[in-house]
UniProtKB/TrEMBL annotation:
<dbReference type="GO" id="GO:0046872">
    <property type="term" value="F:metal ion binding"/>
</dbReference>
<keyword id="KW-0408">Iron</keyword>
<dbReference type="GO" id="GO:0016121">
    <property type="term" value="P:carotene catabolic process"/>
</dbReference>
<dbReference type="InterPro" id="IPR004294">
    <property type="entry name" value="Carotenoid_Oase"/>
</dbReference>
<dbReference type="GO" id="GO:0010436">
    <property type="term" value="F:carotenoid dioxygenase activity"/>
</dbReference>
<keyword id="KW-0560">Oxidoreductase</keyword>
<dbReference type="Pfam" id="PF03055">
    <property type="entry name" value="RPE65"/>
</dbReference>
<feature type="binding site">
    <location>
        <position position="175"/>
    </location>
    <ligand>
        <name>Fe cation</name>
    </ligand>
</feature>
<comment type="similarity">
    <text>Belongs to the carotenoid oxygenase family.</text>
</comment>
<feature type="binding site">
    <location>
        <position position="237"/>
    </location>
    <ligand>
        <name>Fe cation</name>
    </ligand>
</feature>
<keyword id="KW-0223">Dioxygenase</keyword>
<keyword id="KW-0479">Metal-binding</keyword>
<protein>
    <recommendedName>
        <fullName>Dioxygenase</fullName>
        <ecNumber>1.13.11.-</ecNumber>
    </recommendedName>
</protein>
<feature type="binding site">
    <location>
        <position position="411"/>
    </location>
    <ligand>
        <name>Fe cation</name>
    </ligand>
</feature>
<feature type="binding site">
    <location>
        <position position="127"/>
    </location>
    <ligand>
        <name>Fe cation</name>
    </ligand>
</feature>
């Protein structure tokens, strides 16, 4: 299953991949056959525009509502839930950027906002992590107005257990975080929300490199926080993090600055890095693992918060002939062996490939398959490709033609039947 933003109606502005209506595309495998289905995530905001039959909300670059009367009693902020999809405790959830998650039926019909068995919808980010021993889920919700991020802790069935705040230096955008067996790690880049700047007509999200990046390591209940300061960088996505003796190992994609999408040119591309944290000493060590533009790193999800060896991450090669590709456009999948530094690849040529989801097929974290949607810009057709994770350079073990175009999108998940 994979989520992504698809505008239901002509929007007032469109900044891919940061706005649109969530649409989940799913392929089911059963007895040697594959079945495809896609559905919009029908949030309350989606239903308002669906009834109006036109765009009601504003866009990222022009937040003025297109149809203020059409909002009715709803606020001006649109719920879209287009970033990720997650299966936890028997619940299938479509996720946005700190807004209510929306529960879907196994066949992708929207059931309603997710409450975690509390009395109100629970704001969650798109990236949540499951503790490998307890099966509990950790997620976060940052705040646009106050220097705080709230950590949510739910049990293995998805029932809310507790939430606690973590104090920050400034209201900050935090897209992902690290969970290990014993710690939560927050990496807070200087992407700061500034309402005063917004009132002056500037962007409400400001990049303030002089503030540097702060890395917070804390116990799973928020206790005993320690902060390590380092040079400014921004992280959308962590591949994984884990304890190794007295250090914490973190594989992640490092952006030199927050730019909404890598567009090439004079800027350093986002690169895959390994960070070694020594919380007791307050020191760190950081090194690049691959010298090219990457994003959307994934691992075998069974290894979240535990030692993992392989990272699967898309990159862009010259065999993609698209003119002016959108940000975060890739066509080649890398397999990075963090033990040997060996990198193997599968170049899909002139086809756009997205994030790869690992489907386990054995014990090792490269025994299984990598699933990614492909889009062919010449024919407008889409396929789902399955690569053997042990031999990704070889021809796909399966290529399944989709009955319709599956546009570029964001994060996916493998959901066992
Ligand atoms: Fe993300």
């Amino acid at each position: 299953m994979r989520n992504g933003p698809n505008p239901r109606f002509e929007p007032v502005s469109y900044t891919y991949p940061l706005e649109g209506d969530g649409m989940v595309h799913a392929v089911w495998f059963d007895n040697g056959r594959a079945r495809y289905r896609n559905r919009f995530v029908r949030t309350a905001s989606f239903e308002i525009e669906d009834r109006a039959k036109h765009t009601v909300f504003g866009g990222l670059m022009d937040p003025t509502p297109a149809d203020p009367a059409g909002l009715g009693s709803a606020g001006p902020d649109k719920q879209s839930a287009f970033i990720g999809v997650m299966h936890h405790g028997g619940h299938l959830l479509a996720l946005g950027e700190v807004e209510p998650a929306w529960e879907l039926s196994p066949d992708l019909e929207t059931l309603g906002p997710w409450t975690g068995e509390t009395d109100r919808p629970l704001d969650l980010g798109a990236h949540n992590r499951v503790h490998p021993v307890t099966g509990d889920l950790f997620g976060l919700a940052y705040d646009l107005a106050s220097p705080t991020v709230t950590i949510h802790h739910l049990d293995q069935t998805g029932r809310w257990k507790r939430s606690f705040p973590v104090a920050l230096a400034a209201p900050s955008m935090i897209h992902d975080f690290i969970l290990t067996e014993r710690h939560l790690v927050l990496m807070i880049g200087p992407a700061v929300f500034d309402m005063a700047a917004a009132a002056r007509g500037e962007s409400f999200l400001q990049w303030r490199p002089e503030l540097g990046t702060r890395i917070g390591v804390m116990d799973l209940d928020g206790g005993n926080p320690r902060w390590i300061e380092t040079g400014a960088c921004f992280v959308f996505h962590f591949a994984n993090g884990f304890e190794r003796g007295n250090e914490i190992v973190i594989d992640y994609v490092r952006h030199q600055a927050l730019r909404l999408g890598y567009s090439g040119g004079r800027h350093a591309p986002p690169r895959l890095h390994r960070l070694l944290l020594h919380p007791a000493a307050g020191t760190l060590n950081d090194a690049s693992l691959f010298d090219g533009a990457v994003e959307f790193p994934r691992i075998d999800d069974r290894r979240v918060a535990r030692p993992s060896r392989h990272v699967y991450v898309p990159t862009l090669t010259e065999s993609l002939k698209l003119v002016n590709p959108a940000s975060a456009t890739f066509n080649c999948l890398l397999k990075v062996d963090t033990e040997t530094s060996r990198i193997t690849r599968h170049d899909f040529g002139n086809r756009v490939a997205g994030e790869a989801v690992f489907i386990p097929g054995g014990a090792a974290d490269d025994t299984g398959w990598l699933a990614t949607f492909l889009y062919d810009p010449e024919t407008g057709t889409s396929d789902l490709a399955l690569l053997d994770a042990a031999r990704i350079e070889e021809a796909p073990v399966a290529v399944i033609r989709m009955p319709q175009r599956v546009p570029q999108g964001l994060h996916g998940a493998w959901v066992p039947g």
